[in-house]
């Protein structure tokens, strides 16, 4: 991660923002330009994290590749757990699952005879995650140096990209449940319950900001997922509840809304 982003995210929790105050004759140096960029990024990431939430916004489906140890990821957008946007403009892959995460042949367990049968019965499983990743690029000549700069060239841009990671084992299924008990009763919203809910402390950003995309089951050491889409479970991914999605949920919950949807079709 770029050092300026790391400095911004070191206090990814709540902190009072600091922005430039411009006046005629002010010297704008690297610090002040980075202060401007970090201010705008931090504000946007904070709103993404606490208002929009994290997860998949659209796309980023996980598909089997031609080989049993390969997957594909479709284009899409996600927001990571620090509020940063992950944009995948084109299909990724084929991506090879690391060999150390693939089910191991039984021969490697000869010295562990007690666990051999258990290992044969259990299916291998890996989690597919996508992470925000920055790359410095587009080097240009350094025209004026200082005491800390001796390089003739330096990257002039930071590309906001992504990386795909794998983690051993299956993630637990996600169950969407209301965490505010009895918030709706008798057709009325309990505003007191809502006020108490939003008055709880703001959640701290987790140490790992990556977004889980899927569990991939690998039932055989030789053939991997058998190119079978049923062995790829995307229901474990978190999702961002956009306004359009919330509107669709409201229509689905309303009998009248369901009738209107049928009329629109």
Q: What does this entry look like structurally?
A:
This protein has helices at 3-9, 30-52, 113-121, 191-198, 243-253, 255-264, and strands at 55-59, 62-64, 70-73, 76-79, 85-88, 92-96, 124-141, 153-168, 184-185, 188-189, 211-218, 232-233. The chain has 265 residues and is α+β, with helices and mostly antiparallel strands. The strands form four sheets. Strands 8-7-11-12 form a four-stranded antiparallel β-sheet, with no helix packed on it. α5 (243-253) packs across α6 (255-264).
Oligomeric assembly: single chain
The level of helicity is 25-40%
Q: Outline the low-pLDDT stretches.
A: 116-122
Q: Assign an overall shape.
A: flat
User: How many E strands?
Assistant: 12
**Rg over alpha carbons:** 24 Å
Which sequence of SSEs, written as H and E, runs from N to C? Answer: HHEEEEEEHEEEEHEEHH
Beta strand %: 25-35%
Structural class by SSE content: alpha+beta
Give the distance, in angstroms, between the N- and C-terminal Cα atoms. 47 Å
Offer a concise description of the structure.
With about 260 residues, this protein is α+β, with helices and mostly antiparallel strands. The protein has six helices and twelve strands.
């Amino acid at each position: 991660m770029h050092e300026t982003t790391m400095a911004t995210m070191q206090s990814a929790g709540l902190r009072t923002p600091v922005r430039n105050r411009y006046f005629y004759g002010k010297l704008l140096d690297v610090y002040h330009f980075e202060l401007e960029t970090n201010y705008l990024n931090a504000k946007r990431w904070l709103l993404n994290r606490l208002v929009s939430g994290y997860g998949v916004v659209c796309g980023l489906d996980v598909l089997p590749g031609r080989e049993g140890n390969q997957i594909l990821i479709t284009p899409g957008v996600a927001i990571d757990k620090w509020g940063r946007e992950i944009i995948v403009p084109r299909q990724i892959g084929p991506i090879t699952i690391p060999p150390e995460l693939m089910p191991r042949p039984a021969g490697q367990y000869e010295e562990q005879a007690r666990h051999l049968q258990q290992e044969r019965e259990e299916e291998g499983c890996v989690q597919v995650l996508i992470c925000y990743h920055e790359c410095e690029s587009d080097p240009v000549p350094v025209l004026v140096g200082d005491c800390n700069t001796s390089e003739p060239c330096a990257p002039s841009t930071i590309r906001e990209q992504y990386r795909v990671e794998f983690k051993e084992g299956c993630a637990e299924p996600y169950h969407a449940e209301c965490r505010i008990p009895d918030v709706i009763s008798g057709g009325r919203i309990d505003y007191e319950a809502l006020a108490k809910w939003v008055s709880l402390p703001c959640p701290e950003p987790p140490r790992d900001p990556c977004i889980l995309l899927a569990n991939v089951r690998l039932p055989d050491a030789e053939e991997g997922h058998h190119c079978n889409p049923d062995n790829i479970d995307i229901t474990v991914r978190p999702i961002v509840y956009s306004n359009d999605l919330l509107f669709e949920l409201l229509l689905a919950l309303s009998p009248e809304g369901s009738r209107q949807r049928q009329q629109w079709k």
